[in-house]
Amino acid sequence: MSSSSVQKKIGIVGSGLIGRAWAMLFAAAGYTVQMYDILESQLVTAQQELDKELHSLEEKGALRGQLKASEQLALIGFTQQLEELVRDAVHIQECVPEQLQLKKSLYSQLDGLLGGDTVVASSTSTFMPSLYSEGLQRRQQMLVAHPLNPPYFIPLVEIVPAPWTTAEALERTRLLMLSLGQRPVTLKREIEGFATNRIQYAILNEVWRLVESGILSVADVDRVLSQGLGLRYALLGSLETAHLNAPGGVADYFKRFGAEISAVSATYGPTPDTQAEGAALAEIARQCEELVPLAELDQRRATRDAFLIHLARLKKQFE
Predict the structure, then answer these.
(1) Cα–Cα distance for residue pair 95/98, rounded to 1 Å
(2) CA separation (Å) from 110 to 11, 135, 167?
(3) DSSP class of residue 225?
(4) Cβ atoms 209, 269 nearer than 8 A
(5) pLDDT of 280-290, one tens digit each?
(6) What is the pLDDT of residues 210-249, one digit of tens each?
(7) Cα 196 to chain center, whole Å?
(8) Which of 112, 114, 57 minimizes the C-alpha distance to 89?
(9) Dihedral, CA of residue 233, residue 239, residue 240 and residue 241, to nearest 10
(10) Would you list the DSSP string of 152-217?
(11) Exposed/middle/buried for 14, CB within 10 Å: 0-12, 13-18, 19+?
(12) Is 142 helix (H, G, I), strand (E, B) or coil?
């Protein structure tokens, strides 16, 4: 337990999958956590799921922090009153569904309740913080702290400011994420898709094109990542990979391969229309469901999580 976490209260708005993951992370670090939802039934379900998930992790030897599962559960409370959630909270993590009007309504309510010392961070992967905080009195205390799913096993958190977010709010959030054992990156300004999704979507667009054009199957194009690039990227980023792949480092790499990179990039073609329910999506879905039938998705997710636990342990040996 971090000494900085003792007696500090964290509020979490939303008790779904991401809200519960945040509650587990904060409780593991010794913070007092209070979860808010509008429906009592949602909070009852959240309490039951947290009990099950934390004890399951404890049985597997994968529970984070120094506290037992029962001790972590004891740190997590529940409320249906937004005023109670905000009271004495040093940080509020918002985890409501990705609906802009819903977020605007919530942040308008929070704006009238917040003191000057509480930072409000959205878990959104979709909306830039200016879209729901513009015009609010406490907008300088609002930002994005976007986790990757599943947050309990993937440590990255993207911290994204609105144009008016203070440097103090950003730094407080960065230090808070570090106290949980997460690995934050702070964007200098907001941008659509933040960093993770901009990179992820670039990959998805190209693998879509490769499958749609018949160059590779779904299984093979995913194998390019899982058995190739992904193995390097689990330790090194793309720029450090390039830095190691030429005798003179990254500058030498781009001198050697820059022309080829530009020439290949020019052949990518237009961005696929991934919204359209056409033949390309139907074929990709068919092949994906051959690899992992819909009925087996939960089992495959469990395998993913177990792998991430082992990978996290391995990475610690090389940090």
Answers:
(1) 9
(2) 12, 13, 21
(3) I
(4) yes
(5) 999 999 999 99
(6) 999 999 999 999 999 999 999 999 999 999 999 999 999 9
(7) 9
(8) 114
(9) 60
(10) TT--EEEEEE-TT--HHHHHHHHHHHHHHT-EEEE-SS--TTTTHHHHHHHHHHHHHHHHHTTSS-
(11) buried
(12) strand
